[in-house]
């Protein structure tokens, strides 16, 4: 699937995973199940929050935005990845490749900003509880959510503009299961130094700054929690913070490795397993870590299920 030297590439061959047919079927079934679980779990959270006024609070509105971004993010990658797995590879056009890179890159940026906003919301609720309703009202909540989405999609335009100035010729083989940044640069036959510099600078504003902000806010949260006299209250708060920080560390840590220094060989060799961490693991953990462990979410879910069962039984009896 290679093209002669100096011939511009019009399509790419996505190599995927080089494994036997039996393992491909097993991997396809596994990732299909995971994708269904991701979509259903995050969709359930979104519906519960949208349909219950009890959950129309900033914390849950941000959760709703995060769940929606996880659905869009995985949908932009996993369906095509499943096709690549079961087929042993697949062809993607130049425009389609850049489109996929833009969409999932924008959603990665959006989630980074949403995670930072969520940490700020928890900081206000725990450290400045008396001013929380004033500082985080519905208007501010909407503005933060809109800012996260717009910033993610607008900042990614810069990268795409730089990418369109790169010439691809020679081999068109992408040793990955998606059109990612580092594999695309490996196929470039023009100068990529400006693109690498631009992405490095952009990754600081999208990844490093929000991550640093999250760490600082949680240091303040932990300091406040330590001053809580109740042991049970401290344990509950620490449990919530530790779960959040685990996901944040996993998500941001992977992105820092992959996009802050994309040309390093050690990162290129580990690109596939590292990609699976934030493409599959984090979206799958999101409903559990952020939502299903919430008392309010569990209460609304149990109440909704109980009501549906009662209505169903009443309908059957009539």
From TrEMBL:
Transmembrane domains' residue ranges: 25-50, 62-86, 140-163, 200-221, 242-261, 273-292
InterPro entries (UniProt xref): GPCR_Rhodpsn, GPCR_Rhodpsn_7TM, Olfact_rcpt, Olfactory_GPCR1
Keyword Lipid metabolism in annotation: no
Membrane topology: Multi-pass membrane protein
Source species, domain of life: Eukaryota
Main location (coarse class): membrane
Keywords: Cell membrane, Disulfide bond, G-protein coupled receptor, Glycoprotein, Membrane, Olfaction, Receptor, Sensory transduction, Transducer, Transmembrane, Transmembrane helix
The protein's name: Olfactory receptor
């Amino acid at each position: 699937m290679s093209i002669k030297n100096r011939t511009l590439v019009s399509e790419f061959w996505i190599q995927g995973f080089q494994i036997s047919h039996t393992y491909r079927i097993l991997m396809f079934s596994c990732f299909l199940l995971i994708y269904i679980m991701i979509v259903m779990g995050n969709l359930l959270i979104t519906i519960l929050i949208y349909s219950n006024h009890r959950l129309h609070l900033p914390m849950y509105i941000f959760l709703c935005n995060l769940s929606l971004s996880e659905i869009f993010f995985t949908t932009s990658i996993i369906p095509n990845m499943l096709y690549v797995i079961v087929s042993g590879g697949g062809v993607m056009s130049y425009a389609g490749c850049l489109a996929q890179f833009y969409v999932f890159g924008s959603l990665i940026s959006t989630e980074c900003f949403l995670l930072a906003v969520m940490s700020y919301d928890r900081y206000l609720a725990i450290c400045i509880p008396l001013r929380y309703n004033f500082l985080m009202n519905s208007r501010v909540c909407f503005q933060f959510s809109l800012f996260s989405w717009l910033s993610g999609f607008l900042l990614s335009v810069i990268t795409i503009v730089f990418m369109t100035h790169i010439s691809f010729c020679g081999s068109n083989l992408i040793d990955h299961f998606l059109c990612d940044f580092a594999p695309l640069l490996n196929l470039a036959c023009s100068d990529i130094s400006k693109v690498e510099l631009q992405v490095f600078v952009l990754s600081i504003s999208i990844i490093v700054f929000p991550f640093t902000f999250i760490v600082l806010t949680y240091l303040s949260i932990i300091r406040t929690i330590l001053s809580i006299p109740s042991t049970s209250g401290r344990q509950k708060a620490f449990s919530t913070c530790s779960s959040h920080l685990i996901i944040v560390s996993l998500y941001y840590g992977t992105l820092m490795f992959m996009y802050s220094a994309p040309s390093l060989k050690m990162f290129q060799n580990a690109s596939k397993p590292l990609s699976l961490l934030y493409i599959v693991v984090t979206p799958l953990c999101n409903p559990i870590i952020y939502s299903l462990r919430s008392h309010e979410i569990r209460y609304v879910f149990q109440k909704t299920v109980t009501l549906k069962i009662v209505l169903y039984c009443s309908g059957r009896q009539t």
